[in-house]
Amino acid sequence: MNKLVPALLMLSSALLLAACGTPPATSGAEDPYAVQVGTAGTATCPTTTAQENSVGAAATNQARRQAGLPPVQPSPRLALVAARHACDMAQRGRMTHIGSTTTGPAARVRAAGYQPRITAENIAAGPFSQTRVLGEWTGSQGHLKNILLPQVSEFGIGQAIAEDGRTRYWTAIYAAPK
């Protein structure tokens, strides 16, 4: 147990959060913001429930309301895309905006049949509940920029649990259709 506490404190202090409005140009290059969180392995990849997506949208809307912005609507399609990316990260043990087969959030939402006018993505990894992750994102300047993009009108969130059973990978997608 004593060995676990420093590791969890290190994870918590690093908080392992990343925000992405426009993914870095990759042309085969690696995501410069990627963090290897754990080892690759089997992940538990639940489907986002309507309740979880609504809770995420409500937290997003609280921050948007305080900034005088219109609310976002929870999108089941964006939640599915977010959950798939969280699963991909958990399976690789890597927190990154670049997917195994995609270059960033816009490519992922387009592959799901969503025609975006704008996309942004927040990601996180650690032993964090949805409530904690949403609070950390709204408390972080970079993540808050994505939440407060005026053009955004839809939201989706997803999570996956790494093979260790403790580490959760989170993805939130903020978008607006064309």
From TrEMBL:
Residues 53-74 are annotated as: Disordered. Residues 1-18 form the signal peptide. Residues 59-174 form the SCP domain. Keywords: Signal. This is Uncharacterized conserved protein YkwD, contains CAP (CSP/antigen 5/PR1) domain. The keyword Nucleotide-binding does not apply. PANTHER family: SCP DOMAIN-CONTAINING PROTEIN. Residues 53-64 have a biased composition (Polar residues). It comes from Paracoccus tibetensis.
